């Protein structure tokens, strides 16, 4: 099988949220799509290991926030690469509460949907939830939604392990090309596979373009997932 072929499937990036037993949680997903127009139904695919998955089974509701292209790394890092078991993801994020009681992330969102689960399909490692839209809002009509391709190519990040589209890099031959083509220059985050490129630096994190990885201060963290500098390997 050619695993790189899967990269040619197009996706957006969303935050799926829910609340159960007074606890709010959410995660970054790239699988959310409209299933029918009448009634308006959508579907999402969620890894059973995600804390949010079991919470959605309990609550029967979830929200989808459609992220904009300029969505902050802080937001993507908190919801995409950290677990609700360790942190309260809603502590430092703008959100509203829907009429079903689910939290809806409004920060960096161009639109959101509040949904009631009507069908659950067991797909092995994942659960496919089909849900009816009970409320929605177009919050930023002119903003461009973030796509998975943009996230992968421009922000140089990869899907976290629980994503349905996660590809084990050992299965790709591009990793070897990256390493041999830029020996001693780039560095890779072992948590999220983000590649630090010295020529680009990390301006958002205060690292000027042209800074070698070795010269970055020890308290710098991965701009994508928040992992510490020692989680990086120099390629
Ligand atoms: Fe990272």
Question: What would your notes on this structure say?
Answer:
With 235 residues, this protein is an alpha+beta fold. It has two domains: 10-153, Pnp Oxidase, Chain A (Roll); 169-234, Rubrerythrin, domain 2 (Single Sheet). Helix content is 14%, strand content 32%. A hairpin with a 4-residue loop joins strand 3 (32-36) and strand 4. It starts with 13 loop residues before the first strand and ends with a strand. The chain binds fe (iii) ion (FE).
Topology (elements, then pairings):
Blueprint: E1 14-20, E2 23-29, E3 32-36, E4 41-47, H1 51-59, E5 61-67, H2 73-81, E6 95-97, E7 103-105, E8 109-123, E9 126-138, H3 148-153, H4 174-181, E10 187-189, E11 195-196, E12 232-234
Antiparallel strand pairs: 1-2, 1-5, 3-4, 4-9, 5-8, 6-7, 8-9, 10-11, 10-12
This protein binds fe (iii) ion.
The site of fe (iii) ion has 8 residues, from loops.
Keywords:
Rubrerythrin, domain 2; seven-stranded antiparallel sheet; 14% helix; binds fe (iii) ion; 235 residues
